[in-house]
Design goal:
The chain is mostly beta strands. It has one domain: SH3 type barrels. It is 9% helix and 45% strand. The chain is built from 1 helix and 6 strands; from the N terminus they run αββββββ. The strands form 2 sheets. Strands 2-1-6 form a 3-stranded antiparallel sheet, with no helix packed on it. A 3-stranded antiparallel sheet has the order 3-4-5. Strand 1 and strand 2 form a beta hairpin. The radius of gyration is 12 Å and the shape is globular.
Length: 85
């Protein structure tokens, strides 16, 4: 299980490196901007930006930390930032 502190540390790395969050049901969320992930004690809120404002969320989803099964690096950003992969 991933701890909130570990996720925060990864999001705060300088320079930020895009990452993919993988959850137990098989969904994947690509994170291209660290300000669009809000870390709580038991869950994450992942923001999905609109194409015209890539650093401001338009919608959010909550993911319980117990369902987070993997974190991977993304080598290239994609057009669907912070969306399901």
């Amino acid at each position: 299980m991933f701890r909130a502190e570990d996720i925060q540390a990864r999001l705060r790395e300088k320079p930020f490196r895009p990452l993919r969050l993988i959850v137990s049901e098989g969904r994947q969320y690509d994170i291209h901007h660290p300000d669009l992930v809000f870390v709580g004690q038991r869950d994450l809120m992942i923001g999905f930006p609109s194409p015209d404002r890539p650093t401001v969320y338009d919608q959010v989803i909550r993911v319980a930390l117990v369902h987070l099964v993997g974190i991977e690096e993304i080598s290239q950003p994609t057009a669907s930032a912070n969306g399901p992969a």
